[in-house]
Design brief:
Length: 347
Amino acid sequence: MVGGMSAAGSNAGGTAKNAVFGNVFVTGGTGLLGSELVAQLLSSGECSRIVCLVRDFVPKSRFFAEKMNDRVIAVNGDLRDQNLMDRVLNEYEINTVFHLAAQTIVGQANARPTETLDVNIRGTWALLEAARLNSKHVRNLLIASSDKAYGNLKGEKYDESFPLAGEHPYDVSKSCMDLICQSYAKTYGMNIGITRCGNFFGPGDLNESRIFPSTILSALKNESPQIRSDGKYIRDYIYVSDGASAYRHLARKMAAEPAKFRGEAFNFSYELKLTVLEVVDSILKAMNSGLKPTILNESKHEIPVQSLDSSKAVKLLQWKPDLGFQEGVKRTVEWYEKWYHGEHDAK
């Protein structure tokens, strides 16, 4: 290891001469969305090289469990370390950045707000500033914002013209980093594209407090799934494979027409207004389970209704999801059933 960077995978991602994304840097590559994006990039031939920022070694992450770390350049460090970001972008002559790293757990954000604000906001500007200083290499940046950045719009369907008005710590962190990205695009002419998605679900989600893994694992144990809210909250859900594919789709559009999408934000959504209870029922139905959920009604500081309008992405990017919600639920259940029995049958 040299300078905190793993030498493994020094030619990772191949050396395709016509790779549309060139050398790629992924932050948050070990997370739910990041692992899926890295898997897609490894198989797509769209990259000359893939470099991933890794904060912690999490053995059960798909990134490590599927040995993606052996096929990429793994950089150990913290997103907030601007010197490290500068060095990575410079030494590996990064052309395309996918910035996914964040503290994403709302409960943790409420309990420890300063850490979430620091990681999500300072981490973003540290990366952006490093990209600005390495503009001779960095051509495009894809930034993960969130539907939470819009705040509480009283049940309205959000489109990209709505103001960013987060109220609680996580939501505010996303509003701020989104606006900072827009300011760098407008002030410095950087080709930054911003994605706003709802709640991701799919294989490899290790946070058992989220609705998909918690419901599936409870059902596998023949226990009643627990819903922390009253079950009536409406959320926007997107299968992680469709989410990662949407990022790549936007990146291809940006590579083809660099100035057209500069500083633009795009919602990616199935446009289904599903309550938490409806989502749990869909999961249990896919599992052929007769269990009924337990409503705890103890959630605080959460937005009652979140719903995205993705017509801009459909019109300007010609985007459409590959799989959709029901197929995503089916594939997610299948993955967890296989994972659960593999974990427990081996004991």
